[in-house]
Amino acid sequence: MDYCEGGDLFQKINSQKAMLFPEEQILDWFVQICLALKHVHDRKILHRDIKSQNIFLTKEGTVQLGDFGIARVLNSTVELARTCIGTPYYLSPEICENKPYNNKSDVWALGCVLYEMCTLKHAFEAGNMKNLVLKIIRGSYPPVSVHYSQELRFLLAQLLKRDPKERPSVSGVLDMPFLSCRIEKFLSPQIIAQEFRHTIRHKQPKVYVAQVPAGKQTDETGCIQIEPPSSFPIHFSLTPWMASLV
């Protein structure tokens, strides 16, 4: 990964000192985050630690998604992971309730990051872990300022749906007209054609997929039982364009 002189999004948010970001800036960052996450999800990989501290900015303001230390590969697009892992403020309701989860938990965390960009605060905050979990499970958070467009506020509500089945996929998010029109600002026509062709979800070149160590045990669902990331590193071979985003 390239060195990002612009720091991370968390630092950028904290430096605002209560001055809200313009919507144009938020959407430009958000689309880039979605493009990186779409590339990962298309290859059946869960990031599992989407947060503002793992979103880095170059000196020019280009976004890069980082820290795949606890990512994991699913055997299929419908497989559910079972390991409770991630950063507390961004945990999805299904993880808090110790239920199986899939890429829609990354989508929830994406919604938490979007909320953070819009309000400069976490969507869910509490003085202790128990109360934080209760707030997340209830799915109740302070509204975003009407300073932002109805489209943006509607998108946020969709990302933070308590039921993961009701949340859009990252591809569905990028299909929204007010976001799709921005994609060409960050990707060439050739890469857009490559990344958005339907077959990318079905033909997975091995070079893109994280390597799961041999001999790992599986549970009754066929999911890999994952050890803590310190003893289970995951290594990626990146395409040139993905390397510029993640």
From TrEMBL:
Catalytic class of the enzyme: transferase
Residue stretches making up the Protein kinase domain: 1-179
Record bears the keyword Cytoplasm: no
Coiled coil ranges: none
Annotated EC: 2.7.11.1
Catalytic activities: L-seryl-[protein] + ATP = O-phospho-L-seryl-[protein] + ADP + H(+); L-threonyl-[protein] + ATP = O-phospho-L-threonyl-[protein] + ADP + H(+)
Keywords in alphabetical order: ATP-binding, Kinase, Nucleotide-binding, Serine/threonine-protein kinase, Transferase
PROSITE patterns: PROTEIN_KINASE_DOM (PS50011), PROTEIN_KINASE_ST (PS00108)
Pfam families in the record: Pkinase
Gene Ontology molecular function terms on file: ATP binding; protein serine/threonine kinase activity
Superkingdom, taxonomy of origin: Eukaryota
PANTHER family, per the entry: CAMK FAMILY PROTEIN KINASE, SERINE_THREONINE-PROTEIN KINASE NEK1
Family, similarity comment: Belongs to the protein kinase superfamily. NEK Ser/Thr protein kinase family. NIMA subfamily.
Protein name according to UniProt: non-specific serine/threonine protein kinase
Protein's organism: Gouania willdenowi
